[in-house]
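Follow-up to my post from last week.
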Amino acid sequence: MEQIFTYAVPAMGIIGLIVMAIKSSWVSKQDAGEQNMIELAGHIARGAMAFLKAEWKVLIYFVIIAGIILAWSGTLVENSSWIISISFVIGAVLSAFAGYVGMNIATKANVRTTQAAKTSLRKALQVSFTGGSVMGLGVAGLAVLGMGSLFIVFYNMFVLSVGGDVNGMEMETALEVLAGFSLGAESIALFARVGGGIYTKAADVGADLVGKVEAGIPEDDVRNPATIADNVGDNVGDVAGMGADLFGSYVATILASMVLGREIISNDNMGGIAPILLPLVIAGVGLLFSIVGTFFVRIKKDTDSVQAALNMGNWVSILLTVAASYFIIDFMLPAGELNLVRNPEVTFTKMGVFGAVFIGLVVGALMSIITEYYTAMGKRPVNSIIKQSSTGHATNIIGGLSVGMESTVLPILVLAGGIYTSFLAAGLYGVAIAAAGMMATTAMQLAIDAFGPIADNAGGIAEMSGLPKEVRERTDILDAVGNTTAAAGKGFAIASAALTALALFAAYVGLAGINSIDIYKADVLAGLFVGAMIPFIFSSLAIAAVGRAAMDMVNEVRRQFREIPGIMEYKAKPEYDKCVEISTKASIREMVAPGAIALISPIIVGFAFGPEVLGGLLAGVTVSGVLMGIFQNNAGGAWDNAKKSFEKGVEINGEMYYKGSEPHKASVTGDTVGDPFKDTSGPSMNILIKLMSIVALVIAPHISINPHHNLPDDAVMEIEAEKETVAENVEVLEP
Amino acid sequence: MEQIFTYAVPAMGIIGLIVMAIKSSWVSKQDAGEQNMIELAGHIARGAMAFLKAEWKVLIYFVIIAGIILAWSGTLVENSSWIISISFVIGAVLSAFAGYVGMNIATKANVRTTQAAKTSLRKALQVSFTGGSVMGLGVAGLAVLGMGSLFIVFYNMFVLSVGGDVNGMEMETALEVLAGFSLGAESIALFARVGGGIYTKAADVGADLVGKVEAGIPEDDVRNPATIADNVGDNVGDVAGMGADLFGSYVATILASMVLGREIISNDNMGGIAPILLPLVIAGVGLLFSIVGTFFVRIKKDTDSVQAALNMGNWVSILLTVAASYFIIDFMLPAGELNLVRNPEVTFTKMGVFGAVFIGLVVGALMSIITEYYTAMGKRPVNSIIKQSSTGHATNIIGGLSVGMESTVLPILVLAGGIYTSFLAAGLYGVAIAAAGMMATTAMQLAIDAFGPIADNAGGIAEMSGLPKEVRERTDILDAVGNTTAAAGKGFAIASAALTALALFAAYVGLAGINSIDIYKADVLAGLFVGAMIPFIFSSLAIAAVGRAAMDMVNEVRRQFREIPGIMEYKAKPEYDKCVEISTKASIREMVAPGAIALISPIIVGFAFGPEVLGGLLAGVTVSGVLMGIFQNNAGGAWDNAKKSFEKGVEINGEMYYKGSEPHKASVTGDTVGDPFKDTSGPSMNILIKLMSIVALVIAPHISINPHHNLPDDAVMEIEAEKETVAENVEVLEP
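User reply:
Got it. Predicted complex:
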């Protein structure tokens, strides 16, 4: 029976990839339109691939060096192996491949969506959403297949072949080696998210400053050398960055749940392999039902609501996954009382585990709704920024900062409530499983997320190619829906990163052989402070990097206008590729410093101060990173929509204001400040907190205060001795 | 011997107050200048008193209601008493009185400094610094006298009169009752700091928007109805707010050290009263040596450096206090090995305690230096903002935010290092004593801080009265030095608040009867998240409040211009008092919501979820509050000085820019955004984290999981039982 489940997981991954391939070839077969459209789309596609190639050129060195270090370090401790480096490389390669798949389909689907929009909204939605689905299924399919098959290999290699215990140290070694996969995936995600974030904003700001301001040509004008880089940026940041981010969360969540699943005790016996397999099975089933959901995303006539169609598909996937999870959990997990080795005081039943899955889905949905409220047009937060734009740039900024800070309240309460209730439902396993439940329909979430930038690009191509007005109107409808889903997607991404980091945190504590992270200890508290500071310096570096990279872009665009005669008269073509290259190089150069902080700080703290202080560091970075992420994402989103509101016209104190008015200019300032907030540093927080946790998990056996852990004799004796001293003191104290 | 020390403390407080009275009467006797100067100063003085009166009118209800609740709750638990309410009221009254003293002398010293500046810089420094010293000595004197005499009363009442143990539960009751004093002081500080912060910025922005922008009259023009409110604001925010803040830190630090001092064990016997008395004695000695230091702040001729004179006075106080602390600690504390009841594993000697005092002083000095670097003109951070102003409002904002975030790194590393090393030096008592050491020369620190706004006001009066250029030049020299000391003072204030909060945190854990705050427990982690969110919502409310209060002010100024004819022609006087009243009312109304969050959230969490979750909440609010405080203070300070740099002229890419240029306008936007950051929400973080910790300390006996604590039998048994279960599980787990 167990074998069926074990082998079902990679099988489900393969099904996902087959459906992806079918959908992908369907998109490719669609009409790409006229010659000028194809040409523009070609520039964008080549630019996107140029970014990937340049990124890979750097990453290959990183992967090789890190792989060697991992292979060497894997041999140093009993419960790891040099094979962790293989696992790491596979994770990195699959993550990079997932990024490639997403970029590839997005740069095909954009122009085909434009062409489809000539016919009908229905057709345009079909093309753009199918493009998004390819991305979603690719990411989820590769993750499920990769995790599922590596688990089978390592399970056989480290446990079955030596006749080991499925809940014992042998399984721990198997999972520790599997953690390399997650580390590989998350490392690549860091480069994709941070580099992509810097890229997209450098290109955006650079294109605007020289093109719109200095040369006086409109946005998305083909004469602007940075225009292609700007459109490439949308794909690099919103498609590949988001994809890599969720790929990392997905994998890490499953891994953390598996590590905690190993520790489950059922009626005084160990829980067997079922709790370890469960997160993989839920992920696989969620993938299958995401496929089912995609068929529900359709409109019959052009007047139907696109948002309703997306919601329908989303809820079908979620509800089917919840229902299936109920039966799977009921079937797989042992009956009776369950608890965890290191938390025997929290007992639960298998229905508690189902409850945790449900809680995870509710947390994800609530986070999306709250994020949408704080960034949507027409709602109180954005309206308050609009009103404050009427008194100038400064009050617009103050308004946005205030909204961003306020917007942390509800998400944090939801998150804290989720942690609290999922723990009550199924202990620490519950917290991890809640994250796994939330991530189960990642394929669908990502399809909805990736559809937005495709529609956005489609609109840009329609504009640049001078297509009829109704084409642009149709893509605008899709784009508007895409903006809403993008905001909701960011809420989902930060929530999933937070729960993932917590699940990793819980798994880390187990592997590090400690039983508590006591912030009453001065060194742990110091770790908490330093950890909480890291998101601040990370954000500072990311924001400053956008400024510097934009300057590089500005200089390049100025050079082309100066040195290539005839650009302005459409007689000469600008060297788009140079801009793409400049932006690519700058983004990769600028992401080294923040990336190094994320990778190295847990290693230094862990080895210098031990596992408990590292635990404090992780808690600090998670708490502060989640807050800074929500703050920056929502402030940026709200500023953006406050500016967009002026394009339609807004009423302030009885007067109407439009594009070009003084309040609108103030709102543009806010939007520009918000750009690196919401597209660079804000979303990078997700990766930061996950990557640091996964690094900690990987080094845990090396810094463990007790490699054989699970409360060893000497630790017990130490506690004993300490308690006696305390008891003696109490006697002295109480007369 | 002990009795001598016990009674020496209030005596030292009285000496401080006597010297204060002498200095105060000296200032009052100085010449206040011509009629128009006296009149202007009179308006400012009346405005300041109007604020205090209005504040007190509201506060009296708060104090009565909170006092009744405290009296009632004090009777509910064994180790408290209704007398805590008396202690609370005295703390509140003394804090209010300290604010009165400071405001009173500042509004006298300002005009007398202007008059003195007619003669020489030497004389102007003497008057303004003596004014500052009155504030410093008043705050420290009242604190030492209040704490010292209340301790004698409660020690006699709760310990000696019942023949109790100086290290036992009786002393704990005495200290718990004494905590009421700290709660009273900190509550008033909240109103002073937050209300004052809102007041000063509402008046500033209101005066500028209508006066400078709409009516086109210069800054500090007597025709502007809000001008007096603006000048009052400087006193309300920078003098009274800072004074109340440091009064609160000073008292809370001493209290926390005393609570931890009770738990000291010396060679297997309890440590006696010496470790409890020590923080009081150090505070008293620091006060005396601050008096000595004030005599060193003088220049012989007008070409001497004012900064050097201030530094001389400061270092004399610090070094004498350090030297004296060495002998006091050596004399008072028992020899041999020391440790704490609840942390027997950390042993130290009395020289370790001295080491902690030293560490505290170093941390304070470093924090001041770092803050100065990040906000000073001509240094890299401010220069980077200047450069980014050349590309517009948005890049100026991005630059400031980036600098502010970056500026958290070094202070946090210093703070973490301070926590770590002071704990190594003398356990948790060391962390508290480090804070006490840092605060020992509060009188001197505050004298240096308060001197700045006095000089600032003096310059304003010189300008408004149309005095000769050399007078303004002399006050400008003092003002420039004052700006530097203000920045350093903010660094000192946040560092002292952080260490104070940690000391209170440690004291709280003891009183709450818990032995750890384990963030590996899901509920404690949820508490950490919620706590870390509070500084965000608090900042959001404070920033938004400034916006609303400024609008009230704008409407009032507009009304006066409209309804009082002849203001513009100097024929009618504006109703300054109306503006003062409006600003006062608005600030007090707006600070209710943030104040309520600070006061109520620990009570709700403590009673609903227990002491350990409350511990998580406190850790969250402290870590996040320190970061947000540093970020906002430094971003605001850097923006301010970037703007000020344009007044002198700055070079960007080879071109010179001055006041009125486009980059200067962008820098004004940054300065306006920075105003509420650095004068309202940033400094409020200090109070927020201290007040929440002190509330927790006061409710600790009520939520204690074990009123008799210090590790009771049943807790020991519980731990025992849990450990057996774990051990059994391990057996099951390991084959």
